[in-house]
Design brief:
Layout: E1 16-18, H1 27-43, E2 46-50, H2 56-70, H3 74-77, E3 91-93, H4 107-116, E4 122-126, H5 147-172, E5 190-196, E6 199-200, E7 209-214, E8 220-225, E9 231-234, E10 242-244, E11 252-256, H6 258-263, E12 273-276, E13 286-287, E14 290-297, E15 304-305, E16 323-324, H7 325-334
Parallel strand pairs: 1-2
Antiparallel strand pairs: 2-11, 3-4, 4-5, 5-14, 6-13, 7-12, 8-11, 8-14, 9-10, 9-12, 15-16
Helix pairs in contact: 1-5, 2-5
Length: 337
């Protein structure tokens, strides 16, 4: 007799949703698409959006700039150094500089993690040009002419996509479509260029970790990635078990961050995820380089937010006190450096 599979134990898949259906003029189509996005956020915290409205030519161009920057000699890249403190999250970070810290903030624990849990990647981070809290740190223009403007142009293109995704989230929650927009009016977000250099797989190893398991701590993250792949999402039904998310050409992967989970009174999931070398990716024992571009969307830092309307009731009371965005974000930033 064959065993019956408990449906609740099956790993939920990351939904692939055609976002052009939300951008349509038909209200029923918009609502059903928004509901699908929200449902994916509630079950696994991730969704994959195709036809999202950002031209692929713009994405390809930004990947080209990223590859050009990381191909520079180290002495050129460090002309835009990330400051020692994580609270100023801008500029270039060399491999091993940043650590992934999951809810660990005390000094001794962070020090221990820094010594044992470094991820072999390099990054460059930027934001809006008029940010008084975290001003941008650029390499001299003659190091890579056009790089600065390319980053800024792509940042503001991502901001338009961010707002449309937030509109879909609002519709899914039964709120006014513009509900989340005033909370993100200053574009206090971050564009990160990431490069995982080619790496030799240790002898006898079956896989290679490229980024340790973690959650993001923003509202949402929009991820552009190349075709190398490797991102894996924790199965919410089986903690410690991870589900590969294969790259979908032309799509973006969107996930909810810790802040959105808390803001939604935990009806939305912020899910652990990691990056590993996909099976079969290595050639002669070497895993190829991987490039990705996450755009971290955060609330305006000057705000204090309370639970989203409709996410709490007498039967399901608020779990969190009103939260200062500045305090929350800076605490998380500081632990990474």
């Amino acid at each position: 007799m064959s065993a019956t599979l408990d449906p609740s134990s099956a790993a939920p898949a990351v939904k692939i949703i055609d976002f052009s259906l939300f951008l349509s003029e038909d209200s029923d189509t918009k609502r059903s698409t928004a509901n699908g996005i929200l449902e994916s956020f509630k079950t696994i915290g991730f969704v994959c959006l195709t036809n999202h409205g950002l031209p692929q030519s713009r994405v390809d161009e930004m990947f080209g700039w990223s590859k050009s920057f990381f191909a520079l000699p180290m002495e050129k890249k460090i002309l835009a150094p990330h400051p020692p403190a994580g609270t100023h999250h801008r500029g270039y970070s060399a491999p091993g500089r940043e650590i992934v810290v999951q809810g660990k903030y005390d000094e001794e624990t962070v020090k221990s993690l820094r010594e044992t849990n470094q991820d072999y990647k390099e990054s460059f981070e930027s934001g809006r040009e008029d940010d008084p809290v975290m001003p941008n740190i650029w390499p001299p223009e003659n190091v890579l002419p056009g790089f600065r403007q390319a980053c800024l142009d792509f940042y503001w293109t991502c901001y338009e996509l961010e707002k449309n995704i937030l509109r879909a989230l609002a519709v899914g929650l039964g709120l006014d479509e513009e509900y989340f927009i005033p909370f993100h009016g200053k574009a206090d977000s971050q564009l990160r260029l990431l490069h995982y250099p080619p790496t030799r797989v240790p002898e006898g190893a079956h896989n290679l970790s490229r980024l340790a398991a973690h959650t993001d701590f923003d509202t949402i993250t929009i991820l552009f990635q190349d075709d190398v792949g490797g991102i894996e999402v924790e199965d919410p039904n089986h903690p410690g078990s991870f589900i590969p998310v294969a790259p979908v050409p032309g799509a973006v992967v969107v996930n909810a961050g810790d802040f959105l989970a808390q803001w939604s009174n935990d009806i939305i999931k912020s899910t652990m995820h990691r990056v590993r070398a996909p099976p079969g990716a290595s050639v002669d024992g070497v895993v190829p380089a991987r490039y990705s571009i996450p755009y971290f969307c955060a609330c305006d830092l000057n705000l204090v937010v309370d639970a989203i309307p409709g996410t709490w009731s007498d039967e399901n009371p608020k779990k969190y006190e009103p939260t200062s965005v500045m305090d929350y974000v800076m605490k998380r930033f500081a632990a990474a450096y």
